[in-house]
Design goal:
The protein is of the alpha+beta class. It folds into three domains: 112 residues, no CATH class; 85 residues; 265 residues, Neuraminidase. It is 27% helix and 30% strand. The strands form eight sheets. It has a four-stranded antiparallel sheet, with no helix packed on it. Strand 21 and strand 22 form a beta hairpin.
Length: 553
């Protein structure tokens, strides 16, 4: 059998499945009959290269049979999964096995190759790239966290040394006071004794003169002081103080000094496909409260209150409807107030990992850093205006910006003032974010970037590599949402404020709705931040109130 001609008996048209294939498209790897060639060329998405089936077959290279070297392998045994020749069939080695034309197997394997290539290019390879990016981010986090721990350790050590120095100085003062009192008592008694000694010396001289005189009148005037001198000076019994140091207990000292939370590393097996709608997902490690509890409520001086950012568990930076940035403690006391550099109302705020305060100036096109009483311009923008800003776990800055013409919007990652990454389009080349209007963002623990897009009525979540993971628009049958702010917690859950419906949505890291926070008397919630204990701080826009809410057990 001549493989270049006999194969025509078994090669059928890929499109109609019935007619004998006379042509072959090298671009699409498709067999075509005479009638289907025209149909195939109607697909204008590709430039097709169609050749005769003889020309296609002449380009194929057939393997030699390993058992019968003089023969070409024209068949493929499906049971043994090997190429065989006609002599292999006649020898009886493959009795009962299904043998197909080697070209048919060749085409089937080509289809498998195409599917594998597509899956690797579109699904697997991007995931591995994303995993590699995450490793680099985690390495940067590790380095920065190590530097932070060292700085905090030295700072605490200095504070402890200072406290010990203060204690030593206090104890030294006690010694000085005791010395002063002791010295005063001794000096007083010494003066009294010395005075008496001097008097006694004078009396001794007087007595000796009287003994030597013969003058009766002088001797008769003598008054004895012996009774006075017989009263000896009182003896001063002093118990000198001792220092009784407490034995240094190194273990106790270590406890009092402080400790590191344990390093936690877990290997999580993951697939490369997103969960299908309605698929089950793992419950959070910490259970949510059935009814969230209002812990603290306090008034601010703003007529309209917007954004909040946690400096600590007790102090909250705020921004409102004027040019001021105000730091409040949870007793409602104003700790600090700073005026923006330009006098414009800040668009958004975020606390850095070192405790500085970032704010965006939409109209001046600046991203500024407040450190102490100084304001430093970190990033000047040209042609773009900044809206939301957040500091990442690695210390980078994420900023969402709008073009000056109001037609484009994107997320930009900065390291210092250097742009590292720009996120603007999805895989179909469509904008990820709407242009114009309010947009705020936060980074999740899995390094996803979460954007509350008010105009789109959605929370848009992309991976660290900028790939769209999901859009959250509220649970089914919900009323129209108006998402203003977004933050994440230690469980990688995402919280977003639904301004118009007076509630907070909690969703998991894959976009599944978990619950609302719609009690605690919430009125027009705008800004959100989650403290280190997973308590939620909410700013109420119209009332100007700050509310601290516990939502985990």
């Amino acid at each position: 059998m001549d493989p270049q001609h006999s194969a025509q008996d078994v090669l059928r048209c890929t499109l109609c499945k019935t007619e004998v294939a006379l042509m072959y498209c090298n671009v699409c790897n498709t067999h075509l009959c005479k009638n289907c060639v025209v149909i195939h060329f109607s697909d204008k998405s590709k430039v097709h290269t169609v050749v005769s089936i003889e020309q296609f077959l002449s380009t194929l290279s057939y393997s030699k049979c390993t058992i019968h070297p003089a023969k070409q392998c024209e068949l493929h045994c499906t049971q043994c999964d090997i190429a065989i020749c006609i002599s292999c069939i006649s020898s009886g080695q493959h009795i009962g096995h299904k043998a197909v034309d080697v070209i048919e197997d060749f085409e089937a394997k080509k289809e498998v190759l195409k599917k594998d290539l597509q899956e690797i290019e579109k699904s697997l390879f991007p995931k591995y790239e994303e995993a590699a990016t995450n490793i680099q981010i985690q390495k940067a986090d590790q380095r920065k966290n190590s530097q932070k721990l060292t700085t905090e350790l030295k700072k605490h050590g200095e504070a402890l040394h200072k406290e010990i120095d203060n204690i030593i100085q206090s104890k030294q003062t006690e010694i000085d006071v005791m010395d002063s009192k002791h010295q005063a008592v001794l000096d007083k008694q010494e003066d009294a004794i010395n005075n008496t000694i001097n008097e006694m010396k004078q009396v001794i001289q007087d007595l000796k003169r009287l003994l030597d005189t013969s003058d009766v009148s002088i001797v008769s005037k003598y008054q004895s002081r012996i009774k006075e001198f017989r009263k000896l000076p009182s003896k001063l019994n002093i118990c000198l103080p001792n220092f009784q140091p407490v034995k240094i207990n190194r273990e106790q000292l270590l406890k009092q000094f402080g400790s590191f939370s344990p390093l936690s590393m877990e290997t999580e097996e993951q697939g490369y496909t997103l969960p299908s709608p309605g698929a089950e997902f793992s419950p959070p490690l910490r259970p949510l409260l059935d009814v969230p509890q209002l812990i603290t409520e306090l008034d601010t001086e703003y007529e309209y209150l917007y954004g909040v950012s946690c400096l600590s568990d007790e102090e909250i930076w705020t921004r409102g409807d004027d040019k001021s940035l105000k730091l409040y403690n949870l007793n409602g006391e104003l700790v600090k107030s700073v005026q923006t550099k330009s006098g414009n109302m800040p668009q958004d705020i975020s606390v850095t990992r070192s405790g500085g305060l970032l704010y965006t100036d939409f109209y001046d096109r600046y991203i500024n850093l407040v450190s102490g009483t100084q304001i430093q311009t970190l990033i000047p923008l040209q042609g773009w205006k900044p809206r939301g800003v957040c500091c990442t776990f690695s210390g980078d800055l994420l900023v969402i910006i709008d073009s000056d013409d109001g037609k484009q919007s994107k997320v930009v990652r900065y390291s210092g003032s250097t742009e590292k990454q720009s996120i603007q389009w999805d895989d179909q080349g469509k904008p990820l974010y709407t242009s114009g209007d309010f947009k705020y963002l936060s980074e999740n623990k899995d390094f996803d970037i979460c954007v509350a897009d008010y105009k789109a009525c959605a929370v848009v979540v992309v991976s660290a590599a900028g790939k769209l993971r999901f859009r959250y628009t509220g649970p089914p049958s919900t009323t129209r949402v108006s998402f203003y702010s977004v933050d994440t917690d230690s469980q990688s859950n995402i919280l977003t404020s639904d301004f118009g419906n007076n509630r907070i949505h909690i969703i998991d890291q894959d976009g599944h709705f978990l619950r609302y926070i719609d009690n605690c008397g919430l009125q027009f919630p705008w800004g959100l931040c989650v403290d280190s204990r997973d308590n939620l701080i909410v700013s109420e826009n119209v009332t100007g109130k700050l509310k601290k809410i516990q939502y985990y057990k």
